[in-house]
Amino acid sequence: MQFSPAGEAVVEFYSADTPTTYRVTGEGVTTSGKLIQFTREIAVENRMAAFDAGKREADRLLSKDREIERLRQLLEGEKRRSRELELMIEEAEKKYNISIREKDDPG
Question: How much is the pTM?
Answer without folding.
Answer: 0.41
